Amino acid sequence: MLKKLFGYDPAITTVRTEVIAGITTFLTMAYILAVNPNILSATGMDKGALFTTTAIASAFATLLMAVYAKLPFGLAPGMGLNAFFAFSVCIGLGHTWQFALTAVFLEGLLFILLSITKLRSKIVDALPHSLKNAIAAGIGLFIAFLGLQNAGIIVNNDATLVSLGDVTKGSALLGLIGLAITSVLLIRKVRGALLIGIVVTTLIGIPMEITHLTNVFSFPPSIEPIAFQLQWSEVFTKEMAVIVFTFLFVDMFDTIGTLVGVSTKAGMIDEKGRIPGLNKAFLVDAFGTTFGALLGTSTITTFVESASGVGEGGRTGLTSFSTAVCFLIALFFAPFFLSIPAAATAPVLILVGLMMISCIVKVELTDYSEAIPAFVCLIFIPLAYSISDGIVWGLLTYVVVNLTCGNYKKIEIGTYVLAVIFLLKYLI
User: Fold this and answer.
1) Are 36 and 82 contacting, i.e. CB atoms less than 8 angstroms apart?
2) How far is CA 353 from its chain centroid?
3) Which positions of the chain have pLDDT values less than 70?
4) In whole angstroms, what separates CA 326 from the centre of its chain?
5) Tens-place pLDDT, residues 175-223
6) Phi and psi at residue 323, to the nearest 5°
7) Between vectors from CA 129 to CA 124 and to CA 131, what angle results, nearest 5°?
8) CB–CB of 387/134 below 8 Å?
């Protein structure tokens, strides 16, 4: 039954491993249950309704990933895309949140069309093998950077952009304590090390007055204020077209980057460099976005934090099923789940970053025609704070470097097409 439903294979994993991996993925991405309502409520949307919608939409999309694509990935409203929704479309351009939800809904429909035609899979196949490994390593740096930021270990500095925070107290100190504990557990090969690290760090945060446990149980608020609030009057306007395209582009390449990066690390890519079930994963992403827009939230995307579950050994849909169940449970235990501080999940992100950066050894670093584009991709992802920008500049560099060196024969037609599309993004 488990094999039929989730693609579970006892030869490569165990039920215990998959469940722990799913819970770990949830705990590392559970912050979205607090962050997404905070961001989107700036548009005037009801914050309580946003919490419920975020949990339901995440559970639906992740459950679909489990039973249809059978892959160990969690989905939720994407960070960055929700900020674009709130601060650019609504606050910056002055559109209503109903207008923005309509744009997300239309984007989801376009994603479904692209996925059915398998165009998205062809885009992934057009990425050179060296870039696929660089994407995985770049995401590793990116999520480690996110973890350091979340704990306050790395902070903003107007003079140098970033600098070391005050690590002698507060969440930064708790993050370092958690990093030490989780590292020891990993080194000693303790099963469920990442999950245990989160729980122990959260408990240590109580006497440090960083973890605040109040109520444990609460019924979820109604989604009525924001559900099914699409605005059709401006569907055929230029403004709508531009916003839909922007959502489409960012979501497409963020999702591609995440799926390629995490799948590469999990060893789920075949000998031809392809990810089995990739097109199904794209369809899940598309349906999740469409469903989420109807319920009242921004674009649903595959979360890079899925790497934490993969790091715990998750390999099948049973992992994502466990994550989906956690999202549903979170509906009724919101105060408890939201009490887990960012400092407690930060060590997991940092250590998973280490696990993912190991993919860089698969790049032929002595062949500069492969190494230079890979390095550009690797370094742009964390420094530009964007998976999609890293992919864009890595691939453009790959084409330019190899063309100018006379290696045009090794560049596939699909790679040329992608390069032209990427150029148009900056020229138009």
Assistant:
1) yes
2) 13
3) 120-121, 266, 270-273, 425, 428
4) 17
5) 999 999 999 999 998 877 888 888 899 999 999 999 988 777 888 989 9
6) -65, -45
7) 80
8) no
pTM: 0.75
Number of C-beta neighbours around residue 412 at 10 A: 13
Query: Rounded to the nearest 10 degrees, how much is the dihedral formed by the CA atoms of 40, 45, 47, 49?
Result: -110
CA distance 355 to 150: 19
- Can you give the three-state secondary structure of 367-390, one letter per residue? CHHHHHHHHHHHHHHHHCCCHHHH
From CA 202, how far away is CA 250, in angstroms rounded? 33
Give the span between the Cα atoms of 20 and 323, in whole angstroms: 9
- Name the strand (E) or helix (H) holding 75: strand 75-77
Distance CA 372, CA 89 (A): 36
